[in-house]
Every structure is written in C-alpha cells, then in structure tokens.
Amino acid sequence: MKDLILICVLLLLTPALWAFDYCTPPSLDTHNSIVKITGQSAVGSGVVIDRDRVLTAAHVLEGMRDIKVTIHGKALQAVMIATDHTQDLALLYVPTDNIQPIPLRRTALAKEASVWSMGYAFGRSLATGRGRYKKLYKGMLYTTAPVNFGQSGGGLISCENGRHVLAGIIRAFGAQMQNGELVRRDDISVAARPKAIRRFVTSSLQLAQNGWKH
After folding, report:
1. What is the pLDDT of residues 25-42, one digit of tens each?
2. What letter would DSSP give residue 104?
3. pLDDT score of 9
4. For residue 34, what are the β-bridge partners?
5. Residue 186's pLDDT is what?
6. Which residues are CB-contacts of 147 (< 8 A; sequence separation ≥ 6)?
7. Percentage of residues in the chain with pLDDT exceeding 70?
8. In 3D, which of 54, 161, 47 has the Cα closest to residue 105?
9. Per-residue pLDDT tens for 109-139?
C-alpha cells in the first residue's frame, strides 16, 4: 500500500518537474557577445552572430551616417551589409576580434520559458532583465522581459540543450493607450523570431559567400 501511495505521489509531481525551468542567467561569453552601437546622437545594441558579423534592429541604424560598434571598449567603424525593414533586421560588418558568437535557437520556445533581454540601456552599461515567453503574435515574439531605450537590436537570450542561444532580436517595449496617450508597459517586450533572423541572414549574398555558421 505504501508503494502504491509513493507511485501516485511521483506521478503527481512529474508534470511539475518537467515544467521546471532550468535556464540560468546568461554566461560571461554571452555578455561579451552583446555590443553597443552608436552613431551621431543615436544609440542601440547588437549581437555578434559570427566572426565580424553583428546583427541588430534596422530602426537602430536609421539616420546613422557613421556607424560605430564598441568591441572590447573601442568604437570601431562598421559597414552595413543588408537590411530588412519588414522584419526590422540589419546586418553589419565590423572586426569582432575573439568575441564568441551566440548560436541561433533552432527550436520553438515553450510557453512560459525563461528569456533574458540584453542590451545597452540608454547607451550606458549592459542591462539584463529576466522574463517569460508569452506568445507569437503577427510573426513576433512577445515576452515579459523588461526592455528600455537603447536596448533595441540587443539579444533575447534563452536556453537550448544546455547552452545559451539567441532566441530573438529586441525590437521594442510594449505600450497601451491611456487617456488618449501611449503609456509604456514594463511587462511586455517584442522581438524578431529566429525563423525570420535565419531567413534574413542566409538570404544575404555577401554573408553566404563568407559562410555563416548556423
């Protein structure tokens, strides 16, 4: 009888154990792969996805005539490779030295999976905020990871097969209409999904010629 009770208890606990999220905070290598982008009075963030390749949000670069990416504390000149304004993605060439690229996520995020927003809030130090994946809406990832000005183009990080991966590129924070005005919400952020990122990157002839690893 005791054995039967124990089996029943284990069966009740098993779904909870499966649902437990083991994703740890992003590693130092992941931190190093999130870079700051500046130009004139604008500031944003980017992600090293391969050697000398930085992915960011297209709107970050709007109006920038002199794009700089900070690598190991030095602001280096960057060159635009390609943009996709529909998906709000842009690819830059800049020497990334020995920075370890972040691999792109291959599988779909499970609902309520842990995610981390990473980017240079207000162009200052790297900010990291934890949240949960909520849904895919109109081709975009919606999460509760907090996002601020300057973090656009940064990475939405998750865990896959025991390592940290790029689950999306940050686009914006959420907002809602109150008394006729848009009011920011800290519990909603939007990111481009891996499927769109992969399509954008691999469709670039310049990048294909240089053999992007994915």
Report:
1. 999 999 999 999 999 888
2. B
3. 35
4. 47
5. 75
6. 117, 119, 129, 170, 172, 173, 189
7. 83
8. 161
9. 999 999 999 999 999 999 999 999 999 999 9
CA 62 vs CA 19, 38, 55, 88, 197: distances in Å: 41, 11, 15, 11, 19
Q: What is the pLDDT of residue 70?
A: 97
Q: Looking at the DSSP assignment, which residues form a beta bridge with residue 140?
A: 137, 192
Q: Which residue has the tokens 């601020």?
A: 148
Buried/exposed code over 22-61 (b: 16+ C-beta within 10 A; e: otherwise): ebeebeeebebbbbbbbbeebbbbbbbbbbbbbbbbbbbb
Which domains does the chain show, CATH number per domain?
30-100+200-209 (2.40.10.10), 102-194 (2.40.10.10)
Instruction: Give the tokens for residue 119.
Output: 């980017």
Task: Identify which of 144, 169, 172 has the alpha carbon closest to the alpha carbon of residue 156.
Answer: 169
Spatial contact of 45 and 150, defined as CB atoms under 8 Å apart: yes
pTM of the model: 0.84
What is the overall mean pLDDT for the chain? Answer: 86
Length of the chain: 214
8 Å CB contact between 116 and 170: no
